[in-house]
Structure formats: C-alpha cells, structure tokens
C-alpha cells in the first residue's frame, strides 16, 4: 500500500467497499513500459480501468489508447487526446460504430474476418486495418484464446481482401493471454506475424506494423518478471523473426499498467460455519463477484489479502461475497488462509485491484451500489 492510499483510507468516512488507485504508480508503470520497448508505441487498453483521471494522466505522458467501443473512444477524446492516438481494437464492431469512429477521426481498426473488413471498407474508406491472429494463451492466468483472431494461415487473405477494397492493409496483432507470466510467450506469435508479412509481400502488399497486444502481468500472490524482461524477450524475438527489417510495433498493456496501482478496502460482514462439526469458516465480505471481483471466476485470479490481524494463527476459509446469488463465492476449491482471530466488522485490504474491477461491478444487483472508485 502506498502512503498516499494509506492516508486516503485513514480519513475516508463513507461506508461500503471501494477501490483506491494511486496515479503515481500508473505513471511509473507507463514509464517502465516506454523504457522496456523504447521504439514501441504504448496504447493503454482502456477497458482495464477507464477512469477519467487515469486516462488524463496517461494522455499527459504521451500514451495512445486501445478502445473497444465508441464509449471508450469518447472517454479518450474527452482527455484532449487526438483521434490519431486511438486504435479501435475490438474485432467485433457495429458498422455504425465504425462509421462514427471514422467521423471522429479514428483511422486504425482491428479485424479478424472478411466480413469485418467489408464493414470497414464501406464506412471508413482508406482506413488502416490490422488482422488479429489466434494465440493459444498458454502460460496466461486469464487466457483469451478462442474468441478473437483468425488462424494465421487466413490472415494474409483477410489483409489482401482489405487491400483490394481500398483499405490500408497495415499489420498483424495478437494477444498472448492476460496475466501472461512467460516472457517468451510472444515468440510463437511473432514467428506467425513474420510469416504473414512474407505472404503479403509475395502478393505485393507491404505490411508495416505488429501489435504486440497486452498480457503484461501484475503481481498478485507470486512475483512476476518486470517490464524490462518482457521487453528484452520480445525484442530478441523480433530480431529472430524479422532480422534487420523490424516493423513498427505497438503494445497494449492493460492489467500491467493499472493492476498494482489500486487496492480494494472491504469489510467482513459475516464469519460462520455450515455445521458444528465442520471446521471450515465461511467469510463473507461486502464485495464479491458481482461487486467488481469478476476475475475470481473459476478462481482464475487470486488476489492477495491483508487483514488487521496478520501474524496471528491462520486456518483455511471459503471466501464469498454478499449477494443472494450462490455463484457469488470467490475461493472455495482452493480456500484462503485467514487469521483465526478475524472478526465481523474487520476491514480487509485486497491488493492489486486497479485493473478489471470497477467496470465489472454490477449496476445494482440486490440493491448494492456499484463499486466506488477513487483515483488520487
Ligand atoms: C484486454 C486487451 C488488452 C489488455 O490486456 P492485458 O492483459 O490487460 O494487458 C490489450 N489488447 C486488447 C485487444 C485487449 O482486448
């Protein structure tokens, strides 16, 4: 916890769980990415945390932005960033949203199909398109495998289709899976990208750009390599597969930009057992899967917990949220160790919650308000 967050929480008076994000940490993360791959433009993946103060701080540092919707595009433009700093990176867009983005000045669009290329050709003539390829997500804790991207063998055809329809066939993108802990995970996708560059060159189409996507991790329970290690491994792969003709590159960190910048303060609502013989305590917090901790789905992301009684003897607990949906259990298959002295009313700090929390919070399920967010 940073001193600024500690001081903020000490004086906070409102009730209910909240996220607090320290902008200084976001700024430090941005600079680490910029230094790790100095020739690579950073496009912050807005979905990780679209708070206006975060977008503004990144705009001031010179970041560009990966947007998934016209809503996110509007948020970025509201910071004063020009549309030339926006990539419309969702491969699934309504044609009228493409048109609207194009009218706002956006010129860079993701595709992974002929059908999406045709939409863009109709309403965004001359725009640049890059084709996303499938990536298996091995080594990632939150894989994004099947939904996005086409087989690498199809990408050159998709890009050629774009070229024939008057678009600028611009490059290739992929995402190696979120919370990717293997620094070498980019190598296979970069080999595929280089093959697509060659296939297009044979057809007289010269691609310019490789979009390295996101995947850079945040420290949860275990240490993760720093941005610099990722930069070195990615640069070595670029050299290996592209030789001296390294293309323009961009990256889209989301989790790695904001994850460690924020934490959640929550309160213990109930500690109980299911029978007198059962030793397992159920600990219910005032936040759960529907209050912003959606990434505990399948117990994929395991957040570090801090209690005021750390150091006391511990025992395993099931950790659950406050809502009346029985799916609102965060950790049960692998319980969490919590102090035996933990009491109802204690405040728990959930660390590394700056990414993928606020916008995953339900609007009013069971009458609980959306997660409060403070960016300081
Ligand atoms: C979500 C997303 C990202 C960010 O991924 P992280 O793993 O959070 O860094 C980047 N690019 C695209 C296209 C995405 O959908």
TrEMBL record:
Q: By its UniProt entry, which PROSITE patterns does this protein fall under?
A: ODR_DC_2_1
Q: What is its pathway?
A: Amine and polyamine biosynthesis; putrescine biosynthesis via L-ornithine pathway; putrescine from L-ornithine: step 1/1
Secretion signal, residue range per the UniProt entry? none
Instruction: Look up the record and report any one GO term of the cellular component aspect.
Output: cytoplasm
Does 4Fe-4S count among this protein's keywords?
no
Name the keywords, alphabetized: Lyase, Pyridoxal phosphate
Q: Which residues form the active site?
A: 324
Coiled-coil features, chain-numbered ranges? none
| MF terms in GO | ornithine decarboxylase activity
The GO biological-process annotations, alphabetized, read as: putrescine biosynthetic process from arginine, via ornithine
Residues modified as N6-(pyridoxal phosphate)lysine: 47
Q: Which family does it belong to?
A: Belongs to the Orn/Lys/Arg decarboxylase class-II family.
UniProt name for this protein: ornithine decarboxylase
